[in-house]
Amino acid sequence: MLKSVGIVGLGIYAPEKVMTNADWEKLVDTSDEWIRTRTGIQERRYAVEGQGTSDLAVEAAKNALKDAGMVPEDVEFIILATCTPDYRAQNASSLVQAKLGAVNAAAFDLSAACSGFIYALAVGKSMIQSGMYKNILVIAAESVSRLLNMKDRNTAILFGDGAAAAVLKEVEDGYGIISSFLGTEGVTDDILRINVGGTLHPVTHEAIDNGDVYLKMNGQEVFKFAVKALPKATKSALEAGNLTVEDLDLVIPHQANMRIIESAAKRLKLPMEMFYVNLQKYGNTSAASVGLALGEAVQEGKVKKGDMLALTGFGAGLTYGSLVLKWSK
Ligand code: COA
């Protein structure tokens, strides 16, 4: 029998700088009303000058370790889910290891965009079940604000920065991560990515002038994918655990757009009250989004021991995934 693996410590962090819809009205031709009705977002947080993704990650990690009753030296392995590392070529998880003082931990970055937290938890769980490690610090942290073209109202108004961390360990039998589903629908078109600055198209002056060094999104294509991916991933993870939507107490969806969550609720035939939503405060924080929502749901007392949760994400790639979790704390 495989060990049960679950979250024994959880921590979140959102940077202090608040960017409201009114702030966006000053930068581009948009309105608070348009953003609220099309997305549900009211404000987001941006990393302040001098703060990189690793700094957000470290704050969330400290909170998670405190919650787990651990010190940084106890950590055996760090997985950092991010698509916005501090530097190119050096993994941001190594910076986290150094800044946190997790001197005994090996570390790598996991790049699965907004599905990153789900992917990282699934990978971490199997590394513990294999007997390779006894604990894994899973972090999802993003500074998407640094990749935004502040003149592009189509893409930039959606995103924000944040971090979440979870300590994975063996838990009581029958609790923890019950089942998961990870999916990829790879696309070669530029549906959601930064076209320039990777190895295929290095940065040029022209690319900077054209704004090709910033995040660019085809909103409608992503929307079409998301409304199918969210219910499909959730159902597939439930099926993998021989469960159905009736077994769920709460769904923690990727916080991209209220309309996407409402559509998923309809397709899953679940009431909206079963979906935890905090996108109005943070916008889409990419990989951090599901963790940030889980952290706030726990802080607000919406999750109690024995509750069955579905954590579901989707994002660039296109990647998607879901994890069924029986809360063990
Ligand atoms: N303010 C005002 N108008 C805006 C705007 C903004 N911030 N952004 C776009 N518009 C305009 C468009 O230019 C367009 O104008 P036009 O009709 O004159 O061309 C109009 O609003 C409608 O645009 P459209 O793209 O059809 O809107 P939409 O209802 O599809 O909403 C998104 C746009 C981006 C909110 C929506 O497509 C979406 O949420 N997609 C998924 C994005 C996502 O989740 N990404 C992250 C995935 S991890």
Short précis:
The chain is an alpha/beta fold and 329 residues long.
What is the CATH third-level topology name of the largest domain? Peroxisomal Thiolase, Chain A, domain 1
Number of domains in the coordinates? 2
Strand percentage lies at 15-25%
CATH class of the largest domain: Alpha Beta
- What's the mean pLDDT score? 97
**Morphology:** globular
- State the separation between the terminal residues, measured CA to CA: 22 Å
Adjacency order of strands in the biggest sheet: 1-7-6-4-5
Could you tell me the radius of gyration in angstroms?
A: 19 Å
- What structural category arises from helix and sheet content? alpha/beta
Instruction: Count every beta strand, where a strand is a DSSP E run of 2 or more residues.
Output: 13
Count of separate DSSP helical elements: 11
Q: Give the ordered list of helices and strands.
A: EEHHEHEHEHEHEEEHEHEHHHEE
CATH superfamily placement of the largest domain: Thiolase/Chalcone synthase
Spans of at least 5 consecutive residues with low confidence:
none
- Describe the sheet with the most strands: 5 strands, mixed
Helix amount: 25-40%
How would you sum up this structure, described in words?
- The chain has 329 residues and is of the alpha/beta class.
- It has two domains: 5-173, Peroxisomal Thiolase, Chain A, domain 1 (3-Layer(aba) Sandwich); 178-326, Thiolase/Chalcone synthase (Peroxisomal Thiolase, Chain A, domain 1, 3-Layer(aba) Sandwich).
- It is 34% helix and 24% strand.
- It contains eleven helices and 13 strands.
- The protein has helices at residues 21-25, 32-39, 53-68, 92-100, 116-129, 153-156, 205-210, 219-240, 258-268, 279-282, 288-299; strands spanning 5-13, 17-20, 43-46, 77-81, 106-110, 136-143, 161-170, 176-184, 192-194, 215-217, 250-253, 308-315, 319-326.
- A five-stranded mixed sheet has the order 1-7-6-4-5, sandwiched between helices. A four-stranded mixed sheet has the order 8-13-12-11, sandwiched between helices.
- Strand 12 and strand 13 form a beta hairpin.
- Helix 3 (53-68) crosses helix 4 (92-100) and helix 8 (219-240) packs parallel to helix 9.
- The longest helix is centred in the last third of the chain and has 22 residues, at 219-240.
- The radius of gyration is 19 Å and the shape is globular.
- It binds coenzyme A.
- The site of coenzyme A has 20 residues, from helix 2, helix 6 and helix 8.
